[in-house]
Design goal:
Order of helices and strands of chain B: HHHHHHHHHHHHHHHHH
Number of strands of chain B: 0
Number of strands of chain A: 4
CATH topology of the largest domain in chain A: Alpha-Beta Plaits
Strand content of chain A: 15-25%
Number of helices of chain A: 5
Largest sheet of chain A: 4 strands, antiparallel
Strand order of the largest sheet of chain A: 2-3-1-4
Oligomer: heterodimer
Structural class of chain A: alpha+beta
CATH class of the largest domain in chain A: Alpha Beta
Order of helices and strands of chain A: EHEHHHEHE
Shape of chain A: elongated
Structural class of chain B: mainly alpha
Helix content of chain A: 40-55%
Number of helices of chain B: 17
Radius of gyration of chain A: 25 Å
Distance between the termini of chain B: 5 Å
């Protein structure tokens, strides 16, 4: 299903932040903002939250338990080896492998979660809403239906803050 | 915060964001230059020589190397430690400097990460081959097996090393790759070639640059950066433990882990310097890798060089102060004055003295001089590993076991082979991947505006 969107295209980070903040102040529902690099004001302002750090922590806890458990099983239960009379449950030397392998597990796990949550994967086909959004343009996107009555005001905010283009565009739902 | 007035500009020539993408992508779009084919040819010939040496090693066994009963670790282990050290630059640059909020890392980190991945691959080859029966290498993995079950020994630093190196390779490769996704998207959206659009489109994972993607992307780099920072310390500490847990003079020392970590960062930074000076020269990237960037790396190198010098002196001092006659013999009579005195003094001069030239601003700003000094450090760090591995093994407690070591041509060809692999890898990187992180450079472009022009809102950066 195609939706109609109103796009404000900017050249400069400061301009896009000004426009973004003004739109927010007037409580216009901003659909999405595209930028060539992350802008913290926008990331905070959009109100989205990510729990990836929590997930990473959970993976870490899981990995630590799994690794220590596996090492204990191997060296103490399955086949207690004797190295010069040292104890089989040689805990301090398990720490090294635990740290390194935990870091590896967290890395791989977080990457998978990142792809699942951002819905990106190798070979995914996209039609960017604006071709230069990954190059040098900052794009604020609003849904046409939701601002129909105050379209003129939104356009005024865009041009007042230095938008180089204000366009209407049909696109797949964002 | 980055103070442009003090540290100089991060990007020269007042570039627009579009110009930044264009300039960095240019080497991918332009016709492949002639020197590229020539260097690639040379690298491939070296790689073939290495493959021949690998063939001989695998079919004939380790007997084709110059090792003997006393010197059981030769060039293979020297080269392994050397490459791993070089491979340290990736974490040091991307993650250490990220945590320290050093804005000047942005135009160098991509090259450092690429170099890391290739260097760690080169390093990994040596322990594999040194196993002798390389086809049985999977015996190192702890998995339920029919040999007893005979498990691995979790107390052994050699096993820790296996875990650390494989983890390091996977982690630095992921960090590198995920850093490139937004840049691949930039190529996808700006290129006119259909093939490039399809290929880079595939690798860009359908990136659009939306705020939701950036939010998670930032979280991802925060998590990976935060936890991988431990690797800066752990990987080379573990390599050092391979030596330090032994009981022979010259290796059995607690200074080894920090000494190895610092040495690794030293050689990694030096190799980065070699690479970025080449990038400046060959691809005219002076506007992104400015004199100020080179200057910053050079300053770091002075500091690390001083630590290296101190470490060398400490080893010698402790050898005397401990009153252990074995240590004293090893450090002073054997290393400093013995059969391999050349390698010892080459190490001291290349690592502790020559980098001191960077105290002079004129030298830091002279790219040719910087390039030459960076090569000296690379060579010096190789001699350091020679010095550690060979001198200790050649003369242990029992004089009847003393032996000298010189490499066979197979070992030399193996080393040349990894240099070829490194060269080929780096050349492929120059040709097909944006060699500077485009989105990161764009994000620091604002720091070049005079402070007054920058709005107050950036206060959270300060």
């Amino acid at each position: 299903m195609k939706n109609k969107y109103l796009l404000g295209v900017f050249n400069d980070e400061d301009q896009v932040i000004d426009a973004f903040e003004e739109l927010k102040e007037k409580k216009y529902p901003i659909e999405e903002v595209y930028s060539p690099y992350p802008i913290h004001e926008v990331l905070h302002g959009m109100g989205n939250k990510t729990y990836m750090t929590h997930a990473a922590f959970a993976i870490g806890v899981f990995a630590i338990c799994g690794l220590i458990g596996a090492m204990y099983y191997i060296s103490v239960i399955s086949w207690p080896m004797i190295f010069g009379g040292k104890p089989s449950a040689a805990f301090p030397s398990f720490i090294v492998v635990t740290i390194v392998a935990t870091i590896l597990t967290i890395t791989l796990g977080t990457i998978v979660i990142f792809q699942l949550r951002s819905k990106i994967y190798p070979g995914k086909k996209v039609t960017p809403i604006h071709d230069a959004a990954t190059d040098d343009k900052f794009v604020i996107v609003l849904s046409h239906d939701e601002i129909e009555t105050s379209k003129a005001d939104v356009e005024a905010i865009f041009s007042r803050n230095g938008a180089v283009e204000v366009i209407e565009k049909e696109s797949e739902k964002l | 915060m980055y103070n442009t007035e003090v540290r100089g500009k991060l990007i020269e020539g007042d570039k627009s964001l579009g110009q930044i993408s264009k300039d960095i992508i240019h080497p991918i779009d332009q016709k492949t230059p002639k020197w590229w084919f020539i260097s690639m040819g040379i690298s491939l010939i070296m790689l073939m020589a290495g493959l021949y040496a690998k063939y001989v090693t695998v079919t004939e066994g380790i007997g084709s190397w110059g090792l003997n009963n006393s010197v059981g670790w030769g060039w293979a282990i020297i080269n392994f430690v050397w490459w791993i050290g070089i491979g340290h630059a990736g974490t040091a640059f991307s993650i250490f400097l990220l945590i320290l909020r050093q804005k000047w890392r942005t135009s160098i980190n991509r090259a450092a990460e690429a170099m890391t991945v290739v260097a760690v691959m080169c390093a990994g080859l040596f322990p594999l081959l040194h196993m002798g029966r390389v086809w049985n290498f999977f015996f190192v993995l702890p998995y339920p097996n029919t040999r007893g079950p005979l498990w691995v020994n979790f107390n052994s630093p050699l096993f820790w090393d296996f875990v650390a190196i494989s983890a390091y390779l996977l982690i630095s490769a992921s960090f590198w790759y995920f850093g490139m996704i937004p840049d691949f998207a930039t190529i996808r959206d700006t290129t006119k070639s259909k093939i490039k659009k399809a290929v880079y489109g595939f690798f860009s994972f359908g990136w659009t640059g939306s705020s939701k993607e950036w939010l998670r992307y930032e979280a991802l780099s925060f998590i990976l950066g935060g936890i991988a920072a431990v690797l800066v310390v752990s990987v080379h500490s573990i390599v050092a433990t391979d030596f330090a847990v032994s009981v022979i003079p010259g290796w059995h020392t607690t200074i080894f882990p920090p000494y190895f970590v610092v040495g690794a960062i030293f050689s990694g930074f030096a190799m980065v310097l070699t690479l970025v000076t080449l990038m400046r020269k060959l691809y005219k990237m002076n506007n992104f890798i400015t004199d100020n960037h080179v200057d910053a790396v050079a300053r770091v190198l002075i500091f690390i060089s001083l630590i290296m010098g101190t470490a060398y002196a400490t080893e010698v001092f402790i050898a005397w102060y401990s009153a252990s006659k074995y240590e004293f013999y090893m450090l002073i009579q054997n290393r400093m004055l013995g059969e391999y005195a050349f390698q010892f003094w080459a190490m001291v001069i290349c690592n502790a003295f020559i980098p001191q030239l960077f105290w002079f601003k004129k030298i830091r700003r002279n790219i040719t001089a910087v390039f030459i000094i960076s090569l000296f450090i690379n060579v010096g760090m190789w001699f350091e590993r020679f010095n550690i591995v060979i001198t200790t093994l050649a003369k242990d407690y029992l004089p009847a076991n003393w032996a000298s070591y010189s490499p066979s041509y197979i070992e030399i060809l193996l080393f040349i082979g990894t240099l070829g692999l490194f060269g080929a890898g780096v050349l492929m990187f120059f040709r097909y991947i944006p060699m500077i992180a485009i989105h990161e450079v764009k994000s620091v472009a604002k720091f070049d505006k005079p402070t007054a022009e920058r709005k107050k809102r950036h206060h959270h950066e300060e």
